[in-house]
Specification:
Bound molecules: MU-OXO-diiron
Number of strands: 23
Shape: elongated
Largest sheet: 7 strands, mixed
Radius of gyration: 24 Å
Distance between the termini: 58 Å
Helix content: 25-40%
Length: 400
């Protein structure tokens, strides 16, 4: 059945959601699924704006066919060639072989790496500043390199003031009827997944996101149509502010993230005592995660949100407990910076995890490691409670 939705007089949503997907990019859990947004502009010329993931290809093609209602497809704009948006292109071109593919030069090369494009398919290469007139509408192309791949363009329909923003302003999560962000409680239901999507997918490219935000600020935008998640048609200033903050690596909240690894519970016990002491000193909304039990994508997201990060980890194989190492290498890879850390190490005979943590933190920008760092052997005894209390004082003082 055709699931398309009309957005504007000439614009349709023809994407689809996947609720069966376990891991986005075969890596990140998506318990709320994912949407693959695709749009169809029915002007004097017809324009498909991106295709959809293989998993929803049948629904996408049905929507496209039904919404075209017998008209030819004139153009396929490919903003981004990652297969979650490109995968159905070959099926589109089989059905509409005369459609002209419009994309950046790099996209024209990369798409041929992913799929065989027939020799007779026309490809129109565009770059920032170029425009595609379709009759009443004009799509103006804007470079968005590394948001999230190097070939990305976004486009702006200057008639309806619609920004087709590619991965930018997207979120994890399937669409449940409500197509617009103003129809849902975005802060309550979507923001955490939007943050997890941004930080894990584009978090590394803060500078490039800043470049795109500067370009977007020059446009009179009435609607943002991303490739994932709800469409924005009002009150998107707050979401843009989040993007600005995330891409400048500024914490959203002056709050504590406590990440610990624990094999037999002794390290967890220290984490629990420390969190209680912090709460007694007035710290609110402390978030405590077992690094082994939490997918790292959630930890990356929380690390972008919180100003203070406490790390408590055992020594393992003469180095750092591997799940903790994996988490730290991930936030380092995402260029997390401007954070205040606290380090506690455990080790039964030769504790070294603290130094291993600090070595990674030392390779990250603008990190502060509060003293004292604490070492305990196997399990912490009451005789060390004073050390924990001194550390709590240092953390509380650093909030002021
Ligand atoms: Fe949704 Fe970078 O692809």
């Amino acid at each position: 059945m055709n699931t398309s939705r009309q957005i504007n007089s000439d614009l349709w949503y023809i994407g689809a959601s996947d609720r069966r997907l376990a891991l986005f990019e075969n890596m990140m859990p998506v318990p709320r699924g994912a949407s693959y947004n695709s749009y169809l502009l029915l002007d004097e010329k017809t324009v498909l704006l991106d295709t959809a993931d293989q998993a929803v290809s049948a629904q996408f093609l049905e929507n496209l066919t039904a919404t075209l209602a017998g008209r030819a497809l004139d153009f396929v704009v490919i903003h981004h060639v990652e297969p979650d948006h490109l995968a159905s292109l070959t099926e589109v071109l089989v059905r509409w072989p005369n459609a002209v593919v419009v994309c950046s030069l790099q996209a024209s090369r990369m798409m041929k790496q992913f799929m065989d494009i027939a020799e007779n398919v026309q490809i129109q290469v565009v770059k920032e500043g170029d425009a595609l007139n379709t009759g009443k509408h004009t799509l103006n192309f804007v470079g968005a390199q590394m948001v999230h791949w190097p070939e990305v363009l976004v486009s702006y329909d200057s008639v309806d003031k619609v920004l087709f923003s590619a991965d930018a302003f997207g979120t994890f999560g399937a669409i449940s009827g409500n197509l617009y962000a103003d129809e849902v409680n975005f802060d309550r239901e979507w923001m955490d997944e939007a943050r997890r999507y941004y930080t894990n997918i584009v978090g590394k490219y803060g500078m490039q996101v800043q470049n795109l935000l500067k370009k977007a600020a020059t446009l009179d935008i009435a609607m943002i149509c991303p490739l994932h998640g709800p469409i924005w048609r009002k009150d998107f200033g707050k979401f843009i502010e989040k993007y600005d903050k995330w891409s400048r690596y500024e914490p959203e909240d002056k709050e504590i993230l406590l990440v610990y690894g624990s094999m037999y519970g002794h390290t967890e016990s220290v984490a629990t005592v420390l969190a209680g002491l912090l709460a007694d000193k007035g710290c609110r909304n402390i978030q405590m995660y077992d690094v082994s039990a939490t997918h790292v994508s959630y930890l990356v997201s929380e690390s972008f949100r919180c100003s203070h990060i406490i790390l408590i980890a055992p020594t393992y194989n003469g180095g750092l407990y591997p799940p903790m190492e994996n988490y730290l290498l991930d936030i380092k890879a995402h260029l997390l910076q401007n954070r205040t850390f606290t380090v506690i190490e455990n080790g039964s005979w030769a504790p070294v995890s603290g130094n291993a943590v600090k070595a990674i933190l030392g390779e990250m920008k603008n990190t502060t490691v509060l003293e004292p760092s604490i070492t305990f052997k196997s399990s912490m005894k009451e005789t060390q409670r004073a050390e924990l209390e001194a550390l709590v004082d240092a953390i509380v003082t650093s909030f002021k």
